[in-house]
Description:
Layout: E1 20-23, E2 26-29, E3 38-44, E4 47-50, E5 56-57, E6 63-64, E7 70-73, E8 78-83, E9 87-91, E10 96-102, E11 105-112, E12 115-119, E13 129-132, E14 136-150, E15 153-167, E16 172-175, E17 179-185, E18 191-197, H1 205-213, H2 215-223, H3 233-264, E19 267-269, E20 280-282, E21 340-346, E22 352-356, E23 360-362, E24 366-373, E25 377-383, E26 390-392, E27 395-399, E28 405-413, E29 429-430, E30 432-435, E31 441-446, E32 451-452, E33 456-463, E34 467-476, E35 481-482, E36 485-486, E37 491-495, E38 501-509, E39 511-519, E40 526-530, E41 533-534, E42 537-539, E43 543-550, E44 555-561, E45 569-574, E46 580-587, E47 593-600, E48 603-604, E49 607-608, E50 612-614, E51 617-620, E52 623-626, E53 633-637, E54 652-655, E55 660-663, E56 667-671, E57 676-679, E58 682-686, E59 697-700, E60 704-707, E61 712-716
Parallel strand pairs: 21-28, 30-38, 39-47, 48-51, 49-52, 50-53, 51-54, 52-55, 53-56, 54-57, 55-58, 56-59, 57-60, 58-61
Antiparallel strand pairs: 1-2, 3-6, 3-8, 4-5, 4-7, 7-10, 8-9, 9-12, 10-11, 12-14, 13-14, 14-15, 15-16, 15-17, 17-18, 19-20, 21-23, 22-24, 24-27, 25-28, 26-27, 29-32, 31-33, 33-37, 34-35, 34-38, 36-37, 39-42, 40-41, 40-43, 43-46, 44-47, 45-46
Amino acid sequence: MKSTGERILVFAMCLSIAMTAIFAGHKVMAEEAVASTIRMTKTEGEVKVTDSSGTELKTTDNMRLFNGNHVGTDKASYAYFNLDDKKAVKLDAISETEIHKKGDNLEVLVLSGNMYFNVSEKLKGGQNVNVRTSNMVMGIRGTIIQTRQNGDTTEIVFIDGNGEGETSDGQHIEAGPGEKVTVQGDQDGSVKINTDKATIEDLGGFVWIEIANDPDARDKAEGAGFDTEGVTPESAKDRQNKEEQANSDLQDKVNKNKEDQDNNSNNDTYWGGNSTQAQTVTNTNTPPQAVTPQGQGNTVQPETPQEPAIPENTNPVVEQPSEEDPPAENNDGGSQQKKKYKITLNFDSDDGKVKSTVSEAEEGKSVTIKVSPKDGYKVKSVSSKQVDLEEDDGKYTFDMPAKDVTITVKFEKVEEDTPQPEPEPEPTKYTVTTECDTSQGSISISPSGELTAGTSVTATAVPNEGYSLDSMTITNTSDNSAVTASGDGNTKSFTMPEGNVKVSAIFKLNTYDIATSVSGADASFVSVLVNGEAATSAAYGQKVTVRVKMDDNYYPKTISVNGNSEAATYVSANTGEEPWTLDYEFTMGTANAQVDVTYVTPTAITGYDSDGWMMSVTSIKGDVKFSTNDHEGSIFVGTTMDEELDPMTDTLLIIFPGATLTIGERTTIKVGSNASIINYGTIKCIVSMETEEWNGSIVEAGGQIINRGNGAIVNAEE
Length: 718
């Protein structure tokens, strides 16, 4: 079975209570979970199982696994496991895992690839499962997670439950639902931790498959903040297919590189460098990994990391032991000699020497590496992606794992202590402050913040609506001297002096012109006032009064400002003495104002004695009575006899000051929606009839009856 190189994830489910994990020189305590059996419940695609001697076993559904069993998946292949029928594990495509069991302690080591872990039930108190990688160990309890490993980077996405643990350098880790923990290891042994909010895109296709088909997993994912709306069986399968293709292409590339390396050499030098004591050995089970030195002073190039190759069709397939009579803690196919794994050393022989006690070793054997830098050099780092090294006086030891190991040693020159020049003092920095009436405008400074002397600075005054800049001053506050500035308009530029600076601006209200136009009457009928005084201009925001005259022959029908007939509003009427005047008012804006007044000459009427219509501008002077000659009827102002009072024209009835309009009995005035009755005098409704509906009355249907000045509507008896 071929596996993806450089992905070395070790996922450990340590299932015994109160076990202490010793990791890279740090003691990491983790909660444990006890489990008696682990079964491979089903497989998809090509899944291979071997025992501890490398003998291939026959794969069956619900297959029980024992100590030393090795499980590997190929392209588009998956393996499913159960621990005591409660804890579920799924192994992704192109991944490898190995079972270790000692007494009641059970570990599942994921040697490479990805894994999905689902604890469907909360474990009992004191029980847990541990995730262990090359740079961290984390206890998880009642959880659903996905694990990924890429080189020295570990990623764990929590879908449900919480996890807690430590890194190899003793840092504390905590994570919960909806979080993604990334642990990045370095060759010097340091570890960086980053915790982010996870999204659905952080989960692989093989996990999408589980969420799409497991309502409980979907509910927990949604509860953790994952957007699962687009996760369907179809979309999950499509995502998995795309990942399978990408992984397949990568695996083909790795296999091609491995095949090319096999063709080039079958020898492995484990001493390295140019040492005359170098020994060469041949390993028929694995491809060569070390690079033979190229001569004095040449650097030994690092090899392409390789996983142990599983011999193809060289071992007989062995039946798995029966459930009734399993062998003691294993299912090895026979008594074969234990497999040995290679040790490769990478270092520059010009800088020092590196020696190993052996060139290959069985799993579990102790190996010592001696590192000796040359004069003038020191050890910079000693690292391995496969094992954790313990150092003691230039010697590094480790226990051989079930795979080849590469040790990389880096030397560096010992620098002589030389006196360092005194650092240049930090330049003094200064600030620019602003001062202005913020109701009138503001000042922007670029660049802002702390500035050094000599920095070019731009100050821009920004007036509010209706204002403009009157003046701007720039002052060095250290001595209150003026700072020289250049520029026109609202922008000034200056060079930062050796001192703080204050920029002050004064804004002023803008003034705009007012012009009048009179139609239908003499221009003297219209005047403009500001604060009670005649004016031809006004400042932004000021109230402007338009005073118009009227008499029996001239009435101001419309008053508009810049074409808007609603801009000027009626304020008051002076009808106590002639000439009568009306005051309208508007607020000055940010442009010149054109005031247009249109006068009309109303037709004076003396009354109606039957049903009638008013369809133009009419007026009432003196005393006028509307009646219907003792029969019930209506007078229509700007409408027809239709009960809906449909508007006919833009009609205006004016009752001038001192005039009285009497609405006789049995008479009703009906006002259309586009008509108005403007009353400066008195409207008298006769209400002496015994039948109330025969009283004089006014019906307003959308139009207006407006009392101005001393205008009033009263009820009276004949």
